[in-house]
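Let us begin with a simple case.
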Amino acid sequence: MKLFVGLGNPGAKYAGNRHNIGFMALDQIASDHGFSPWKSKFQAQMSEGTLTGEKVILLKPQTFMNNSGQSVGEALRFFKLTPADVVVFHDELDLAPGKCRVKQGGGHAGHNGLRSIHAHIGADYARVRLGVGHPGHKDAVAGYVLRDFPKADQGWLDDLLRGLSDGAQSLATGDSGRFMNAVALRVAPPRSSTGEGAGARKKTQQQRPGASPASAKDASGDAPASASNDARSPMQKLIDKFK
């Protein structure tokens, strides 16, 4: 069993905030993969489902960000899980908007939600770090993460959330490489390429039908055979021209 935790703050006031991207990620996964309706449990909103045969619990703590660990700790003890079974989705200031990285263990880097989880279950859990960018100065961080994503960010945000959902099955089985590939295919899909040679050939083929047979030349640059095989004398050609 895996416990996927999305970090955020409860209530409509915060729903669109950068700080709530963890909630958004879990909502996308639950919707796309047919998870159960959300219900209140463990001081959180909880949903259950399966991904590639692996049972997965989705947890959105409703304790506000700074006390997220209370909810996570309760769920962990109830299901008799270890920190290694936990994956936390959270906003990351040190990544550019739309970037995603997976990390196992480590520090909380000043993120209050992670700080609380550290205090309740330790540091040995996985994190899915979701880039939201940095405002440029540490004094502006609180206001920045508690503001909604602007309309200009909706394109990459939608791609990122869909990519997280696409890769959720791989994440549930511990295949972080395949998970990251799924995200990348949404966020930065490969471009289709056509060679200039092919385009030039197509253009040439399109031009040929309109060429005049009388003035056309063959590949060697010579006049077509129909012109070179004309047996008329020069005088006869002149007479025929003025008929």
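The second case is a distinct protein. As before, the sequence precedes its structure tokens.
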Amino acid sequence: MRFLAPLALSLALPLPLAAAEQAPDAALPYLAALIECRLGHGDFMAYQPVLRDPLAAVALGWRPLPQANPFMIEYRLNAPVTVFGHSSDHIAFAGDGVVAVLDLADPRVLARELQLETGVDTPEKALFGREVRAQEATGPDGSRGWIDSAVINVSNVDSHPGKTLAGCSYSLDPPEEAEEPADEPAPATVAVPSPAPAVPR
């Protein structure tokens, strides 16, 4: 399933390092829309300078939290956001995604509401997702044909028992290289018998 690749990466990789070094913009994309997969990869990357600067996060009304999970950067918000019909003042960035940490013990309930596909569903682990957008975009090199995609994901994690993580993973993927056509087999040659030597009468 296509959604599993970006979702798995968002839970296993450190933050992207490709964001431009710049001062955080006061007019950052709307956080709730970012969590609900209503924005794009560029909007997600606009938050990267904030994640590298605790003072910038505090200026936004975010309080950095102790790192309970080595793959997540967590914040407590001064003003809660409402996402997927639930209010939360606890968010986290992980890899190429951002999630709200919701007071829902069973992520399956929300996954059914959002009509997500099942990635993992065991008594210990639940992971659901669905690609909601994949559109052509201009890449960082200015070329066309890149794919800007967004995947809603809902899961649980051992570091946050009794909670549901719900949010979005964003990616910007380069164009796939066109496959070269397979070499056509050379036409079979038919041996033509040499003319028989002339025999004198």
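The helical segments are 4-10, 31-35, 41-45, 48-51, 54-59, 107-113. The radius of gyration is 26 Å.
Keep these points in mind for the review questions at the end of the chapter.
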